[in-house]
Amino acid sequence: MAAEYQINAGFIPLFDSAVLIAAREIGFAAREGVDLTLSRETSWANIRDRIAIGHFDLAHMLGPMPIACNLGLTPLASDTIVPFSLGLGGNCVTVSNTLWAGMAAHGALPDLDPARAGKALGALIRERANAGRDPLRFAVVHPHSGHNYELRYWLAACGIDPSREIEIVIVPPPFMADALAAGRIDGYCVGEPWNSASVVAGTGHIATVKATIWKTSPEKVVGVRKAWAEKHPEALSALLRALHHAARWCQDPVNRGELAALMAQPSVLGLSPALQMPILTGHLALGGGAERTVEDFFLPFDKAANFPWKSHALWFYTQMVRWRHVAHTPENLAIARDCYRPDLYRSALKPLGVALPGANSKVEGALASATPVGSAGASLVLGPDGFFDGQIFDPDEIDAYIARQKLARAEA
Amino acid sequence: MIRKSLTVLVIDENHIRASIIEAGLREAGHEQVTVVHDVAGIARRIAEIEPDVIVIDLENPNRDMLENMFQLSRVVKRPIAMFVDRSDQASIEAAVEAGVSAYVVDGLRQERVKPILDMAISRFNAFSRMARELEEARSELEDRKVIDRAKGILMRSRGLSEDAAYALLRKTAMNQNRKISEIAQSLVTAAGLLDPGES
Q1: Stretch A117-136: mean pLDDT, rounded?
Q2: Which PROSITE patterns match (chain B) (predicted)?
Q3: How many Å apart are CA A256 and CA A279, to the nearest integer?
Q4: Which residues lie below 8 Å from residue A179, measured CB to CB, with a gap of 6+?
Q5: What ipTM, to 2 d.p.?
Q6: Cα–Cα distance between A227 and B11 in angstroms, integer?
Q7: Domains of chain A, each with CATH number or no CATH
Q8: Pairing between strand A88-89 and A298-299?
Q9: Domain spans of chain B?
Q10: Which of A155-159, A292-296, A377-381, B98-102 has the lowest mean pLDDT?
Q11: How far away is chain B from the Cα of A390, in angstroms, using its nearest Cα?
């Protein structure tokens, strides 16, 4: 079928761009009449700039990034909407061998338990502070990223003030492992394969993972220039259907070898296929010979992974408020709520007769185990979606949630 | 009124391109120009230099780190923002297409910065053109070398004259709708496989 729609998209070399890559390389886009051109970029700033000037119609983006754009928190921001999520989970917190030894001395075990690891880290931080040593330095990929917010959430829930007791710097994902090995940072939070890269090199230890801090939590999304989406609704719908099929293909264990080889190509990640396997299997080497298999470590499709929940956008918004990236006002809240567009996802996928969530939001942290839910069409399983500290985020009680976190910080 | 000359920091990992920009800035009368190739320790450098304008290549993967740093007032004394003149969309497009961006300190008038950005854009484009031409010249030289080797193989193995060997390569290329250098490369590769002594 000749391509009806030309779509230009950007991506950053990270494994969670897989759905976009597979849509083009395995032919799902072509099957929907979409000629999808993908350009690899070196920074999120470049992605933002090229969206703004129209080089890209859409791109692989950090979940909070389109919200930050619409809130005017970045230069060259253009109205961006999110009709599709590229997956759940996939990040780790990796620390240097020295820091891990210090944490282990305070009770951390190689079991990825965020509460235990955080408690040990807190004890170590206070010991260092008493000895007059410099604060530990952690890196994340971008201020408006799931990484920054989940790292801060984890630390704060363990009684560590991430704004005062540690330093948080920005390092591009491919440089994380080198920065850790060179001692420029003590730890980092990033997506795969950049955690396993440090473990394989023998220079880092995975302390905990996103999938245990907040189970089935949001990560990358497809950010679309709003003006383009409004002008080309058919092209967008065709692409969303292609991404849906690509995501299902990425989730299927049968395709793991082929997907790993695809992502390993020099034009995509340029790393060995073996390094792509931990994220695909959830079986992680943690460092020092320890291994662990994490349930739902990274989900490109299952558990409604592609549905752009408004509750995910709103949780990111509460963390932007919490860490003073933006003021909490009714206008800002509305901007965050309107950024994620489950309506577009639903209307594009409706003709396929696949399982679709009936609601736009859910109470995050309410599902303690995998739960079949009522949905249009076929059956759908959600969760578990709990936060490790047992907190619940009810998007209908957003003021109370923000107030509670503010109070917790004031008491710290 | 004599205005203080602007202090410009150029961040570019490409040494040649950085010196081309630096030369352009000096020609335009900007004497306070600093060039940095490596962003390690950049916060300290910015604190020392206190640049009015920062010119950076867009391929630099550290843009996110730099933008974050510009917003943290304890690192930089004066807030630094991206040079964005919304009324001048063409200029933004030209900058991104050329692969360059500029950041300026808060309060600096746009018209003082625009000539610097325009100069950077034209020099970035000139550099890309030069790099492209160099690459073309280099591959032309490589092509000629491989064609010579293929001619030699044909002359030895089939007893052809140099002209006849070249004519055969050209005719095969035309028949297969490929470049002569591609046919020559295939022949050299095949000959190497058949006779380890050849390559």
Answers
A1: 97
A2: ANTAR, RESPONSE_REGULATORY
A3: 10
A4: A139, A171, A185, A188
A5: 0.91
A6: 33
A7: 5-89+217-271+299-352 (3.40.190.10), 91-210 (3.40.190.10), 356-411 (no CATH)
A8: antiparallel
A9: 8-132, 137-194
A10: A377-381
A11: 32
Model confidence, pTM: 0.89
The structure tokens listed for B116 are 């610097």
Quick one: average pLDDT of A401-405? 96
pLDDT at B198 over 50: no
Interface of B with A (CB under 8 A): 58-65, 67-69, 71, 81-82, 84, 89, 92-93, 96, 101
Do you find a cis peptide bond into A384, omega within 30 degrees of 0? yes
Is residue A299 within 8 A of residue A89, CB to CB? The reply is: yes
A44 → chain B, closest CA residue: B64
C-alpha torsion sign, points B173, B174, B176, B178 = positive
Cα A95 → chain centroid: 19
- Closest C-alpha among B99, B169, B89 to residue B131: B99
User: What pLDDT, in 10s, does the model give residues A350-375?
Assistant: 999 898 998 999 999 999 899 888 66
CA distance B68 to chain A (A): 7
Q: In whole angstroms, give the CA distance from residue A74 to residue A58.
A: 17
- Looking at the DSSP bridge assignments, the partners of residue A91 are A191
pLDDT value of position B86: 64
Q: What tokens does A316 get?
A: 């990111």
Average pLDDT (A269-284) is 93
Across the A/B interface, how many CB contacts are shorter than 8 Å?
54
CB A181 within 8 A of CB A175: no
Considering the four listed CATH numbers 1.10.3470, 1.20.58, 3.40.50, 2.30.30, the one that applies to the domain covering B8-132 is 3.40.50
